[in-house]
Amino acid sequence: MKEKDIIEKLKNDPRNKEYTDRGIGPIFQFNKDSKILIIGQAPGKKVEESGILFNDKSGENLVDWLGINMDTLHGKDFSIIPMDFYFPGKAKSGDKAPRKFISEEYHPLLLKELKDVKLTILIGAYAQKFYLKDKFKRNLTETVRSFNEYLPTFFPIVHPSPLNNRWMAKNAFFKEEALPELKKIVKSL
Prior knowledge:
By secondary structure, the protein is α/β, with parallel strands linked by helices. The chain has one domain (3-188): Uracil-DNA Glycosylase, subunit E, CATH 3.40.470.
């Protein structure tokens, strides 16, 4: 199924009606020849308004972590497929969880079209639990700490939101071990 057909299917899916009615299309970045796939959480409100993934402070952190710039992130070498293609709304603390049907029903359609992905970066617990299944550790921290176990296919990372600065301060291994390895792999691809 081609990308434009998947987009039409998403727009016509009754579970996305409220977005379609407001003129909001699904937000993902798809390049069939990309070598690196990023599976994120879900677009935030600012991204929903711009339609550009990681067009926010999280994106600034992410490109720094990957050792690239925004043009590269949004170029031909990367595909970005969030766990939900729409902003799920606000919860009491942070955003609501991504709706599960997107990853269950629509990810396989897109992944089937990606023939040359060498690395999948899994951002946050939702992506890690879905893709690592029973290989997900006790929690996100332990999963990210064990990044070497998932290579060369997957590289789990924490969400690059500035809200995770406290997590990063408590988990020095991320900056000292995980990020240098991630940058090295991204550069090689």
